[in-house]
Specification:
By secondary structure, the chain is mostly helical. The chain has seven helices and no strands. The protein has helices at about 1-30, 35-50, 55-75, 80-105, 110-120, 120-140, 145-175. The radius of gyration is 17 Å and the shape is globular.
């Protein structure tokens, strides 16, 4: 029962962030406060740099993902970790909701397919790495230090490799 409640708690915060960002992004795009064409252009240039495997793009991906993992770990170690995890998950949901709204505004219904393909498979690996950290934090589960960090680092490494090597193969399908 306790695990189910934790799962509902985690999904609630992700869903709340997703809903909040989707509504806010739609409002900003509809009112003309933010030009979604410009934002999509930045996103597309980032994809093209990754596709060409430019060293700066690969290093940026590596640094951002390591920084994100470090932030998850620091927030989980704090005294108010339950609140921090809620904020962290709602922020992740906000990122996904904004991205989904941007792609839908730019490409219509096909934008949802673009959203799903552009987040597969690397987000699965990142989600597993950060999920391991969050579940360990919320459950108080103590694991052997080497095995625990080995699992987190392996998931992070597979996520980075798939973002750099697999995603560029999928991106021509959606361009």
């Amino acid at each position: 029962m306790r695990r189910r409640n934790q799962g509902i708690y985690l999904l609630f915060w992700i869903g709340a962030g997703l809903l909040l960002a989707t509504v806010a992004a739609n409002q900003m795009f509809a009112s003309g406060v933010v030009d979604y064409h410009v934002l999509y252009g930045y996103l597309q240039r980032g994809w093209e740099n990754t596709k060409e495997k430019q060293l700066g793009s690969v290093i940026r991906i590596l640094l951002v993902r390591i920084l994100q993992t470090a932030v998850v770990e620091v927030l989980c170690r704090g005294r108010m970790n339950r609140l921090s995890v809620g904020v962290l998950l709602s922020w992740a949901g906000c990122g996904a909701g904004f991205s989904m709204a941007l792609m839908t505004w730019h490409r219509g219904a096909y934008g949802l397919i673009v959203f799903l393909l552009s987040n597969f498979p690397h987000q699965l690996f990142y989600g597993m790495a950060w999920g391991i950290l969050i579940i360990r934090c919320l459950s108080g589960y103590e694991a052997r230090r080497n095995r625990f960090w080995g699992a987190v680092l392996a998931c992070l490494l597979f996520g980075i490799l798939s973002e750099v090597h697999v995603n560029p193969m999928l991106l021509p399908l959606i361009s």
